[in-house]
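User: Can you predict the 3D structure for this chain?
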Amino acid sequence: MEQQKVLLDVKNLRTSFFTDEGEVKSVNDVSFHVNEKEVVAVVGESGSGKSVTQLSVIQLIQSPPGKILGGEVWFDGKDLMKFTKNEIKEIRGNGISMIFQEPMTSLNPVYTVGNQLTEVLRSHSKMSKKEAWQRGVEALAAVGIPDPEARMKNYPFEMSGGMRQRVMIAIAVACNSKLIVADEPTTALDVTTQAQVMELLLSLVKEKGTSIIVVTHNLGLVTRYADRIYVMYAGRIVESGTTEQLLTDPRHPYTLGLLASVPRLDSNKDEDLVPIEGTPPNLARIPEYCAFYPRCRYACEECKKKAHPELRPVGGDGHFIACHRNVKEG
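Assistant: Here is the predicted structure, written as structure tokens:
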């Protein structure tokens, strides 16, 4: 089997926010990679550090109060952490595009979709207004927006939520980015539109060879689309592996909890969903031991006496967990 080429390789990334309450360790020694032509999902509850990790990769952390404290971000063979501000601006859009959670806050309500699309295109390439407009029309058509020429003249508020999300994807398509980061791309969309958006993202991988990172709290949403999954909790990755490994052989108690809280078509209709009890920890007061300990039904006193578990291989090839117990072993 031909070995896949790594497009993005993040090593020991650390990002904190310095507040009146103390240092909030939002990204705490996170390492992950994305191969070419691959769909990778990063899942976890709100506040787990998923979005901040991706914002750190393209250096969009608001400073102050945020600061990237260390780590390496290798993209296409170059360490972005060593780039100047102007150099990293060139990477955004041309190399890595980000689709933010709520398109209505990302699209300017007083400019037409066409104006915003052409502005992005002209800022990343030497195009005339006419060429950028035509590329924008083609991009809207590529993401399945009917009558794209007319839609270019629409304002964002004249479009549905699903249509606005397609516009955000069109901007990424138009820039021919090698990597697209989709941050909660289906938030506030109905189930049918969610599936359409995910299928659209998947088609980019097949047609353009684009790699995609899908950031979501909904583990059930990505199991059909992702090649691999990283599970985050309290600023750290607690389990990673192929989608099949995490679905058929989950090893971390948090992953088990996420799966148990998602409804399944093959489950008994009288069977209740099992929520994860408790709340995520305060990232300004993360304990030295496992942060999931207070909510873990498999925890024992030994877990509290040991330092925070590091990722270790378990199960099949490429499957890692950060857990002292390993629920399969007891």
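Residues 191-208 form the longest helix (18 residues). The mean pLDDT is 87.
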